[in-house]
Amino acid sequence: MKKILIIESSPSLLTLLTEILEHIYEIYIATTENKVFKVLESERPDLILLDTLLNDTDGYASLATVRMVHEYSQIPIILITSLSQSDNLKKKGFELGAVDYIYKPIDTEELKRRVNLHIELNTHKHALELIIQSRTRELEQTKKALLYSMAHLAETRDHPTGEHLSRIEHYTRLLATEVSRLFPESLQKEQIEIIAQSAVLHDIGKISTPDHILLKSSPLTIEETQIIQKHPLIGADSIRKTIMLLGENPLLSVAAEIAESHHERYDGSGYPYGLVGEEIPLSARIVSLADVYDALTSERPYKKAYSHEKALSIILHGDFRTKPEHFCPIVLQAFISVSKNLKDFMQTP
Predict the structure, then answer these.
(1) pLDDT-derived band at 87, boundaries 50, 70, 90
(2) What is the CATH topology of the domain spanning 158-346?
(3) Quick one: which of 97, 164, 178, 184 is 20 to 30 A from 333 by CA?
(4) Alpha helices in the chain, H assignment, sequence order
(5) Does domain 3-106 have CATH number 3.40.50.2300?
(6) pLDDT at position 28 over 90
């Protein structure tokens, strides 16, 4: 049975409304604003009938107060008022969130029809919202599956198990979360998941790199190095062409900037453009460090996997190819802060 909360301070009108509706709905009563919230805390009515003339407060003020509480903001509220009410007050009621008016003296059949109408409308609205939420979740899952499918095309050539993708996403999420915690002015929390999921496409451009270069165990020649260093531009271009086909998408937009700039270095010694410092998108600065850490702790055609401790030492102190000045200072600080979490995940079977 649907529930109705009647907010009314007139005993006679309260009795009338209850007698009309109690055989159809479960009725709850509040005679003051304080009692309204006591009822709302224990029951969730499907509709509220609110008199604009209450003993302890203006009914419009009560309407505004209820609407300010997010969890009650979608309950339909019908105002009860007199026919003599001014047009300005009627307009005010709708602006505050009322869905309809019932006028005194109460017409029994009109009351029943209007209450039933708005309860049905709200029921259909809620059902539609659930459908939309379900479809939205399905769409998000499809988007993520698409990202992984695209990334997998490139990654399985030099990372046959595909575990590299899940590690990069996890390392990126850890680093981004810590950057947001330490430097909230630099990265908002809602951006963390977008960056983490987009990170899996960082090397999509490698799909154009020949196997004899990608899987080479000896040092690359100058020409081979020039070829492999084109993959950020190829990857970003591929993702942006996808955006042109599918329309603007936050995940793909961030994925494009990560693909293009994750080999840039904070000191300007990276590629493809030699960007310096904050010229490099923060998303790419985060993925850059996540990618280097994964490269150091993973087996590659040209090297064995290093321990977490050795990888940490190389990133913080440098070696013949990696230097701490390659990394953004705030990302490096976040890396130090979560290094134990990185190690724990790396060692998970």
Answers:
(1) confident
(2) Hypothetical protein af1432 (1.10.3210)
(3) 164
(4) 11-21, 33-42, 59-68, 87-96, 108-158, 163-182, 189-198, 211-214, 222-228, 231-246, 250-261, 282-297, 308-317, 329-337, 339-346
(5) yes
(6) yes
